[in-house]
Amino acid sequence: MEIRHFLLGLCAFCLFHRRASAESTCNLKAKFNLSGYKDVEKKKVVIGGMFPIHKRIASNDGNTLRLPVSSDCEGFNFRTFRWTQAMLFAINEINKREDLLPNTDLGYVIYDSCFTISKAVEGTLTYLTGQDEAVPNYRCGDGPPLAALVGAGGSDLSIATARILGLYHFPQVSYSSTCSALESKFQFPTFLRTIPNDKHQSTAIAKMVLHFGWTWVGTIAADDDYGKYGIKDFKEQVEEAGVCISFSETLPKVSSPEDIQRIVQTVVEATAKIIVVFSSDVDLSPLITELLRQNVTNRTWIATEAWVTSALMISLLGGTLGFAVKRASIPGFQRYLLDMDPYTDPLTEEFWETLFNCTLDYGRALRTSKQKARDVNGTLSGEVRGLPDGLCTGCESVAKLNNTYFDVSQLRITYSVYKAVYAVAHALHNLEHCKEGQGPFNGKDCADITDFEPWQLMYYLKNVRFKVPHTDEEIYFDKGDVEGFYEIINWQFSSNGEISYVIVGHYNGSAAPEDRMNILNDSIVWNSEVLEPPRSVCSENCQPGTRKGIRQGEPVCCFDCIPCADGEISNTSNARECILCGVDDWSNDAHDACVPKIIEFLAFGEPLGITLIVISAFGALVTISVVFIMNVGTPLVKANDALLSFSLLFSLVVTFLCSIFFLGQPQNWSCMTSQVALALGFAFCLSSIMSGYTLLPHCVESLTPLWAFYKDIFSFLYTQGIACGVWLIMLPPHSIKNTSAKNIKIILECDEGSVVFICCIFSYDILLALLAFIFAFIARKLEDNFSEGKCITFGMLVFFIVWISFVPAYLSTRGKFMVAVQIFAILASSFGLLTCIFLPKCYILLVKPECNTEEMMRPHAKTRDGTATGTSASLATAATEVNATISSMAIDD
Ligand SMILES: *[C@@H]1O[C@H](CO)[C@@H](O)[C@H](O)[C@H]1NC(C)=O
Ligand SMILES: *[C@@H]1O[C@H](CO)[C@@H](O)[C@H](O)[C@H]1NC(C)=O
Ligand SMILES: *[C@@H]1O[C@H](CO)[C@@H](O)[C@H](O)[C@H]1NC(C)=O
Ligand SMILES: *[C@@H]1O[C@H](CO)[C@@H](O)[C@H](O)[C@H]1NC(C)=O
Ligand SMILES: *[C@@H]1O[C@H](CO)[C@@H](O)[C@H](O)[C@H]1NC(C)=O
Ligand SMILES: *[C@@H]1O[C@H](CO)[C@@H](O)[C@H](O)[C@H]1NC(C)=O
Ligand SMILES: *[C@@H]1O[C@H](CO)[C@@H](O)[C@H](O)[C@H]1NC(C)=O
Ligand SMILES: *[C@@H]1O[C@H](CO)[C@@H](O)[C@H](O)[C@H]1NC(C)=O
Ligand SMILES: *[C@@H]1O[C@H](CO)[C@@H](O)[C@H](O)[C@H]1NC(C)=O
Q: Which residues does UniProt assign to the signal peptide (predicted)?
């Protein structure tokens, strides 16, 4: 577009070139059609201005059959019209001042850029050349010199104009172009601005997003340099800090309903609650309107300075946070806005007609016929009261309207315009008051205010430093930019349902990094019922006890929380990995700490332990009481050999009591004691039973001394004792911590030391038991009074049953119950033997003492089998038989 005009202009240049000889070869290709304000008559210097008074150019009808004309503009913008008035107001003010440019009247040329690059370029060329049939590189006529251009609205407009102005070293002071791309002195050597660079704003928004812990945000950017650069800077900064972008939409300049629908759909479907928008109000308003129509109100918007206080936004986005440039009140400005005569120029007429939705034709007629009647109230005088609809007189009262144009509560960009005009004025002032001989140019030269070059003014502009009237803010350009200071604005509904812009903090880009942002949390009203800031995260934090699991193909902020496995923990939020607990530790239920494993052993104090102690003590007591009972009834005891009984009873006491050693926390000594005591106790017990059969004949018949009787028992015991001794010395049993059997417990148990030894030792006991059983089995047929043989056989059967059933029970239990099973087996087998062998005898001794006589023994025996054999005799016979069997077995071997 620019290029087209440029070329057209080049040709026009030929046409108007004074020295052009071949006039016939050039012809005018286009005439720009611009609207605006102009007052250059009798002025010393002219300041340019460019404002996007209209929102767009009228769409071309695409007709290529006729001469294309410069497009018209449409969509009157009251807000930017106010900016224009601010420039006029400032020039007026400066012209009235005595201290600033006292002898120099400023003129102005202001063009409407229509928010469009092509119009901005048209305006720039027209301004530079002074003609709407632009001849580039030449300015014809002898009007006052041009100072600087104040403008041109949005960033992409300024970029376009700055490129052209840069060619002529013509200074430009922008009041609302914030794009960071404009900071390049290489590309835009003459560009200055009175509004902060967006770099600060992107940083500030990023800081705010991080401040509230939002890690999941959507972004919407206008399809221009302002939006693209702003969002790019913002994204770079937050992504570095681990924030993820939920969606990134671009608002088209000319938005079709389909585009808007698509973006609305994205916003509705996205889970991000925070949406950062880098866009002008004009571009954004169709989207906001559509979102509100669809009742999408539960998002929090982060606004940039371009739309944060714009009335174009329907005031329903309560809770919006935004950054706004400095605000000021300009005394006299409101009066100036209200004291407006609609008939001065076409733009003001259009303003009036748009404002009141009427046409001024009637009023113009009245005015020309000098019948205009306007009273102080602004009401119409009697003769025009019956005015038809759609017509107005120009006497309407503007003060009664709540139009954004008259709203001077949020003078931010307006104030920026005001500062820009003052900056140019101060630069001109300095230029004018250059002391001859002390000037900066060409070795102490000064420039002449009536005829200076733009680059000379540029020098003064760059170095200008002044205090803005009424506010005392000091302005100077640091590399073309001003200080990055923003107020943080929160949109809040006031009691009457209107939106109010409440300042909740500020951001000072020049302060130390930690002091830059200052937010008063309590004063923010959020777009939700709760008082807390909304949470905008893709996935909620992973609690301790879980770890982050990435989701394939999704941003890092979206993850699943995977519980730690047993034995693993995570003790921080958002842990990436679970930590394995140490050997002695295990994870707690929540998996957020390692806790020592439970130490398990069968304690004395617990019910099971107490029960077992009671049972074994009871067993031992019963056994001891049997000893006393046996003492009483001599005949029967004699008949059954007291020594045999007593040694058997003694060994049973040992086995009963040794079970106690299995209880309690295993210690090395208790491991040894329990196993050895058990082995020896059983060896003693079984060898006693067996000895009863092998040795008894000798006792009865030859009354061999005691030691002879015990010789065999002791020989068995010796063997076992020596084996145990070797075991204890070589590979003694010891207590161990078993950490592998169960995850959550450490089992304290006895390690046998050597499996081979313990097998040998208990195999020996088993061998004795088998022998005892065999002997008893053989002897069971021999008759005696108390069926001694049968009792022992039965006792041994019980013994075997107990120990055989012990094996599967033992193998199928774990931990302390293994010990309990072991003790039960010991107790059960001991009780079995005790009961089977001694219960019948005790029965006779206690219940039927009359049978306990020598006589009763014999006749009883006689009646039973007819032969006069006593118990002893029968035992002896049995023993002989057993001996024979043993010898034959030995021979067989
Ligand atoms: C210029 O624009 C105005 C309205 O903005 C229109 O009335 C006029 O015809 C246009 N002139 C040309 C030459 O296009
Ligand atoms: C403000 O809120 C943020 C996040 O909620 C918190 O980190 C900060 O401490 C709060 N500051 C004050 C002054 O309450
Ligand atoms: C917004 O509200 C709608 C229903 O009112 C709900 O379905 C949706 O999830 C909400 N969105 C967010 C981001 O909270
Ligand atoms: C929005 O809400 C209003 C009232 O709550 C309702 O009448 C309207 O149908 C809703 N519009 C949509 C698009 O859901
Ligand atoms: C408004 O006009 C009426 C009639 O002309 C007049 O009496 C009244 O004082 C005026 N009001 C103001 C505020 O000037
Ligand atoms: C302007 O007035 C016309 C007729 O007088 C009417 O049809 C139209 O709706 C009005 N527009 C607005 C925005 O009030
Ligand atoms: C303008 O605003 C004031 C208060 O803000 C209100 O009282 C008045 O009714 C409004 N007028 C119009 C025409 O909306
Ligand atoms: C911003 O911070 C700088 C450095 O601390 C300070 O000089 C300046 O006055 C601050 N600006 C405002 C508006 O407070
Ligand atoms: C988390 O556990 C590790 C290892 O157990 C420990 O070093 C660290 O101090 C723990 N951190 C917290 C916050 O408890």
A: 1-22
